[in-house]
Amino acid sequence: MYAFTFERPSSLADATKLAGNAGARPLAGGQTLLASMKLRLTNPEQLVDLGGIAELATIKRDGNAVVVGAMARHADVASSADVKSAIPALADLAAGIGDRQVRALGTIGGSLANNDPAACYPAAVLGLNATVQTTQRKIAADDFFQGLFATALKDGELITAVSFPQAKRAAYMKFRQPASRFALIGVFVAQTDGGVRVAVTGGGNGVFRHSGLEAALSKDFTPQSAASVKIDAGDLATDIHASAAYRANLISVMTQRAVAKALG
């Protein structure tokens, strides 16, 4: 590696100040950033380790929502009694991320800030219409994700927590890419008072909602209704892992399975 300075603040105020420095990068679980540094794809002058800020790792109930701190590890979300009781689909999603080592180190805040186009957490945030809380504001899920590795975060702005509202029913189904365990296609389905939300990850440039599936399932929340929706492959990715047509078929199949799972 190359030379850089390392800071480990103990308060959010100190972390916010350090993150605003030119050339600084916040370090959450390090599952992406450290690998990128080893490959010299990124070269921050300063790392600001958020692991020493206890308030960022909490998970708590807040009315009909669950608020997950940005530094909560995947394993913590998967095992949280509050998450399991209020939004079991979110706990199930977290339990299926990567392998045991990734789940022990990776964080929800790091995942969302990175916004990998095949990551699982963006599907939960978008599917549940969650709110991303930062050091500067609150950002609605529909406004947060802005394309390939792009988000609404400004320079120096840190995610502090994510507020997930409870849904009537919800489920996540993922078809894993065998080597990376990222989603070749992942679908998060949530039935709410305002209708159904369907969020798809792994399809191309980033997580997205599928309006056709949402409309059909808002009228009839059944696997058969999901199966009746034609999935357009035009905007989906083709790569060494799967063709756009294959991904389109997976979206349909994973949605049907997610609805069946949500129905119990």
UniProtKB/TrEMBL annotation:
The keyword Flavoprotein applies. InterPro entries: CO_DH_flav_C, CO_DH_flav_C_dom_sf, Diverse_Substr_Oxidored, FAD-bd_PCMH, FAD-bd_PCMH-like_sf, FAD-bd_PCMH_sub1, FAD-bd_PCMH_sub2, Mopterin_DH_FAD-bd. Residues 1-169 form the FAD-binding PCMH-type domain. Coiled coil: none annotated. Keywords: FAD, Flavoprotein, Oxidoreductase. The keyword Flavoprotein applies. GO terms for molecular function: FAD binding; oxidoreductase activity. PROSITE patterns: FAD_PCMH. This is Carbon monoxide dehydrogenase. It comes from Ramlibacter tataouinensis.
